[in-house]
Amino acid sequence: MSLNTNAFSIKPKQGRRKFLLRLSWTGLSLAFATFLAAMISFVRPRVSSRPAMSVKVGFPDDYRPGQVVYHSGRKLFIVRDEKGFLSISAVCTHLGCIVVWNGDHNMFLCPCHGGKFDAEGINVAGPPPRPLDLFAIRLDDNGSLVVDQNIIIRRAKDPATRFQSGNA
Ligand code: FES
Question: Diameter of the chain by CA atoms?
Answer without folding.
Answer: 106
